[in-house]
Amino acid sequence: MMELLNQMKPLDYVYLLVGIILFIFSILSFLDKEHKHRIGTGLFWLIYSVSFIFGSYLSKEINGWLVMVMAGIVLIKQLGKGAYFESPIDFKKLEALRIGNVIFIPALMVGIITFIIGFFTKLGALVGLAIAAIFAMFAALYITRANVKQGFHEGRRLIDAIGWTAILSQLLAALGYLFNLAGVGKIISSAVASIVPADNVFLIVVAYCIGMALFTMIMGNAFAAFAMITSAIGVPMLVVAHGANPAIIGPIAMLAGYCGTLMTPMAANFNIVPVALLEMKDAYGVIKAQIPVAVVMLVLNILLMYYFL
Fold first, then answer.
1. Taking Cα atoms as reference points, which of 177, 189, 176 lies closest to residue 231?
2. How many CA atoms lie within 13 A of 241 on its CB side?
3. Is 2 left (phi over 0), alpha (psi -120 to 50) or beta?
4. Which alpha helices (DSSP H) does the chain contain, by range?
5. Per-residue pLDDT of the chain in tens (309 residues, 90 and over written 9)
6. What residue spans define the domains of the chain?
7. Which candidate among 23, 35, 146, 266 keeps its CA 20 to 30 Å from the CA of 164?
8. Which residues cross the membrane (predicted)?
């Protein structure tokens, strides 16, 4: 065991820590007698914890079957919310008055510590984020005078509110991988080349930016869309054919992709999770509010990219 731990990289310890936390959430769910779907919910987070702790050591087939089981739990609606030993609303109001804006210190610590570790060390931003989260947690416990056990209950409450969308990032990453294997980028390049005149720079820019937005909406992630659409349109049709500066068109293309992020439920972390946490009645309320801004920004990105060409 010690030899295995010594071979682990810093990021592996982060995955291990996340897996342990998810395992604790699963145990708390199993023990929650007031939880209507405690077995399904506990099993869901248990499997998710296994994927973080042992995913690198399991075969692709086993990992795939684990995902299928998780999907089945969601399909038969056995994932839900339980009891979290929350404080009465009156107590929360009094604590809010006592603590005031000091409550934002842990949140600020996450960003500041992550930046310092990511910028000044070789550990990387993800490891920095994990370290920052640990420091922020202890700061929050000190400020609120809560205990660690209540911290786990609150963590379970949040993860249950987010639900199955918590695993969407990994699923979208897998989707991007499958798209690349299927040669979707080459198909897109051929389709655009057959429609857009090679000498019409403006139409190529329009195809590039709109393509980024659309595929981000499909994949839920601008980073996954960027590699595909840039290799299909940006590099061959703008950089190679028209001498575009990749350092300029790349960031603008990413911004165009982010416009798609604002308009899709696939970007769950931005659009669906806030709805769950804020308990909004309209599941697509955030998206509806963002669409006008996203469309305007997409048009501006198209014009900006064309200007620099």
1. 189
2. 15
3. alpha
4. 2-7, 10-31, 38-54, 60-75, 89-99, 105-120, 125-144, 148-162, 168-181, 184-195, 201-219, 222-229, 241-242, 246-261, 268-271, 273-278, 285-308
5. 556 556 678 888 899 999 999 999 999 999 998 888 999 999 999 999 999 998 888 888 888 888 889 989 988 989 888 888 877 888 888 888 888 899 899 999 999 999 999 888 888 888 999 999 999 999 999 998 888 888 888 889 888 888 887 887 677 667 766 776 777 777 887 888 888 888 899 999 999 999 999 988 988 778 778 888 888 899 999 999 899 999 899 999 999 999 999 999 887 777 877 887 777 888 888 899 999 999 999 999 999 999 998
6. 2-75, 89-146, 183-308
7. 146
8. 13-31, 43-59, 96-120, 126-146, 158-179, 191-215, 222-242, 248-277, 289-308
Tokens for 110, please give them. Answer: 């996450």
Structure tokens at 305: 């990219």
